[in-house]
Amino acid sequence: MKFKKVFIVFIILPLVIAGCAGIGPNATYYMATTSFKYDPRYTDYMLLLNGSEIGGGFGNVTSTNSIKVGPQTVTWKDSKTGELHQSTNQLVIQKEQLKNKKYLALHIYPDDTVEVTTSDNLPDPTEKGMKWREQLRKNK
User: pLDDT-derived band of residue 19, with 50, 70 and 90 as boundaries?
Assistant: First the structure.
């Protein structure tokens, strides 16, 4: 009888609690994060997703973050001026975007809109972002 209690407390209960993190309206997923900024006119730093700094370096730097489903707040600073930017669109991450994925990439476009992509492998820049980046370089 004592074995059953120990088994339930130390084995079953933690599994049940851990499983709760991935269900419900406030599900949380732990995954590698990175970012891509397509505006060559300035360098961003301190890119925050809901107050937590995520990886950057045009997809070359990753960090591990807890990602909650639902509306997101995205802010970043210009490394030269310290000017604070905030996404101009409302980013909402759906549970379906995160399920069974390993990486989340945040894409920052020159008009301060943001987009999220998820993948099983290191993410790539978006076609939209690369077109925008090339156009801005030509107009320099």
Answer: very low
